[in-house]
Amino acid sequence: MSDARAYLALCTHTHLFPGARCRLQDLPHPAAFATAPEPIEVYLSFSDGTATAAALHTGSPAGPTLAVAAYTTAAGTPIDDSTWAVKGIAQKEDDVELTIGTPNRA
Fold first, then answer.
1. What is the mean pLDDT of residues 33-49?
2. Which of 14, 41, 55, 76 is most exposed by smallest CB count within 10 Å?
3. What is the pLDDT of residue 106?
4. How far is 77 from 72, CA to CA, in rounded Å?
């Protein structure tokens, strides 16, 4: 992941799973981003207070993906690095909500 500005994303749970939601904060133009998302660096903040780096990729023919760095939950559960399909990107008030799809397995 690069040194570009990372946008905070508040996640509703302690980890990602199909259907999980994360809200991107402080995007300069949330409506435009929701309509035509661009690749960005993300800082995922989970409900248990843990956090990790991630990157939203948009160039895939299969649709956007979220590449997430490994981290450990507050309960001590290690979560390996992973890449997830993003099945929804929608403006929610001043934020943009990502709805997580299935994990991309190698």
1. 96
2. 76
3. 56
4. 5
